[in-house]
Amino acid sequence: PFVDRPTAMTLSKTTISPPKCESGAKKIPCVLGPILHSRSKFELKDSTPRNPAIMSKAGAIFAIQTDEMSAVQYMRINAALAVQYGLPEIEALKAITIYPARIIGVDTRVGSLEVGKDADIIVLDGPPLDYRTNTELVIIDGIEQYRA
Questions:
Q1: What is the 3-class SS of 6-56, one letter each residue?
Q2: pTM of model > 0.85
Q3: How far apart are CA 98 and CA 117, in angstroms?
Q4: Which residues in 26-142 belong to E strands, given as ranges?
Q5: Other CB atoms closer than 10 Å to residue 66's CB: what's the count?
Q6: pLDDT in tens, the chain (148 residues)
Q7: What pLDDT, on a 0 to 100 scale, did the predictor assign at position 67?
Q8: Nearest of 46, 6, 44, 10 to residue 27 by alpha carbon
Q9: Distance between CA 105 and CA 55 in Å, rounded?
Q10: Which one in 28, 46, 85, 108 has a CA-CA gap of 20 to 30 Å to 95?
């Protein structure tokens, strides 16, 4: 699945400009983040939550990441912060769903709800990027795993 795909770049630690994610006519997908962080590491001191909005305006494909698996529960908060700093909400949702799947070459199987794709589904009681939203139902591989 990775044949003829440009290498993804992780530009998580700095303020970026769109040309850093483009290579001639081919756009190189980027992984941005974490957006929610303490700036305690030297490489985070100049980062900005505006990076996803900058990349979106440039037409780049990018994913938002949390920097570590132990912080994955903050994925929606990272996406919501990107929205607060100018990223359209639909692009924030794509940056944590279909865009990461495209970047690693598995978007024909996962990343969006379509007939024939694998799907893990969550049902929420409010907007997905609102911190007050709670999970009502989780279905993984067609099996109910959690119900509030």
A1: CCCEECCCCCCCHHHHEECCEECCEEECCCCCCCCCHHHCCCCCCHHHHHH
A2: no
A3: 12
A4: 26-27, 30-32, 62-64, 121-124, 135-140
A5: 20
A6: 333 444 444 444 444 444 445 444 456 788 887 777 766 777 667 778 888 998 898 888 899 988 777 778 888 999 999 999 999 999 999 999 999 999 999 999 999 999 999 988 999 999 999 989 999 999 998 899 999 9
A7: 77
A8: 6
A9: 20
A10: 46
Burial of residue 121 (number of CB atoms within 10 Å: 0-12, 13-18, 19+) = exposed
Which tokens in the block code for residue 37?
């962080």
Q: What are phi and psi of 4, to 5 degrees?
A: 60, 25
Structure tokens at 129: 């990027």
Q: What is the rounded CA–CA span in Å between residue 28 and residue 137?
A: 36
